[in-house]
Amino acid sequence: MNRTEFVIVTVIVLTAAFALGWFVNWLIHRFTRVTQADLGELERMAQSLHEAEETRDQAIAYIHQRDEEVGREMAQLQAELRAAMEGLRNARHESDMLRHQLEARGN
User: Fold this and answer.
1) Cα gap 1→44, rounded to integer Å
2) Confidence of residue 38 (pLDDT cuts 50, 70, 90)
3) C-alpha neighbours within 13 Å on the C-beta side of residue 105
4) DSSP-assigned letter for residue 1
5) How does DSSP classify residue 33?
6) 1 contact partners, CB below 8 Å, separation of at least 6
7) Residue 18's pLDDT band (boundaries 50, 70, 90)?
8) Structure letter (DSSP) for residue 34
9) Helix boundaries (H) for the chain
10) 101: number of CA atoms within 13 Å, CB side?
11) What gap in Å lies between CA 94 and CA 97, rounded to an integer?
C-alpha cells in the first residue's frame, strides 16, 4: 500500500465515520425531540401544580387561623370553667355553713 492508497483509504474511513456519526445524531434528535403537544402538556401540568400549591398555601393559612381561634376559645372556656368551679366551691361552702347554722339552731 503506497502513500496515495493510504490517504484515499483514510479519507474513506473518516468520511464513513463522519456520516455514521451524523446519522446517529439525527436519529437521536429525531426520537428525543419535544413536540408542541408535549410543551402544551408540560405547560398545563405546570399550571395545575401552581394552582395546587396556591390551594395548599391557602389551606395551611386557614389551618393556622383556625388553630388560633380554637386556642382562644379553649382558653376562654377554661377560664369560664375555672370561674364556674370557683362559684360551685363557694356555693358548697355557703351551703355547708348554712346547714351548720340550721343544725346549731335546731339543737
Assistant:
1) 64
2) confident
3) 6
4) -
5) P
6) 9
7) very high
8) P
9) 3-32, 36-106
10) 6
11) 5
Residue type, 25: N
**Whole-angstrom distance, CA of residue 50 vs CA of residue 43:** 10
C-alpha cell at 37: 403537544
Q: What is the mean pLDDT of residues 58-82?
A: 97
Predicted confidence at residue 30, as pLDDT, reads 86
**In the predicted model, what is the mean pLDDT of the chain?**
93
Q: How far is CA 73 from CA 66, 67, 88, 102, in A?
A: 10, 10, 22, 42
Per-residue confidence at 96, pLDDT binned at 50, 70, 90?
Answer: very high
pLDDT value, residue 59: 97
Please report, as a single letter, which amino acid is at residue 32. T
What separation in angstroms does the CA of 86 have from each of 24, 78, 93, 107? Answer: 88, 12, 10, 32
